[in-house]
Amino acid sequence: MWRPGEGRTKPFFPKGMEKPVHELGIASSILEIVTRAVEEKGLQRVTRLKVVVGETTAVVPDALSFAFEAISRGTCCEVAQLEIEERPFRARCRQCGEEFRVEEYRLICPRCGQRDAQMISGDELYVDHVEAE
User: What CATH code is assigned to 21-89+121-132?
Assistant: First the structure.
């Protein structure tokens, strides 16, 4: 009889990435988007791509990079250099117009103390650009 995990060690993932499941799905979507675009343009391989990731998306950049590298083997993105730009969670106060970095999800204006703020960055998740040949 075999039991899951019996006689095996824990899979290795870089520090802070014990379960890159969320990032694996995102990496898969990125690969699909980029592959489709490359095929439509009649290109062969991607050399570089940039992805923008907002702080509130809960994406761990190292986990995304690790997942992308793993699933891109044997594809047009195999040699691609993945650049990940992180965008901070920022908001604008609707009362005084102050723009500020949101800490610990507290949408409180540091200038006037109001709790009426609108997110202006931090929820991004998109492929910014692709370089291919």
Answer: 3.30.2320.50
Q: What gap in Å lies between CA 117 and CA 89, rounded to an integer?
A: 12
Q: How far apart are CA 20 and CA 58, in angstroms?
A: 11
**CA 52 from centroid of its chain's CA atoms:** 7
State the pTM of this model: 0.80
Q: In whole angstroms, give the CA distance from residue 100 to residue 114.
A: 12
CB 127 within 8 A of CB 30: yes
- Rounded-to-integer distance, Cα 70 and Cα 101, Å: 34
Q: Which residues contact 111 (CB under 8 A, 6 or more apart)?
A: 93, 96, 98, 100
pLDDT in tens, 70-103: 999 999 999 999 999 999 999 999 999 999 999 9
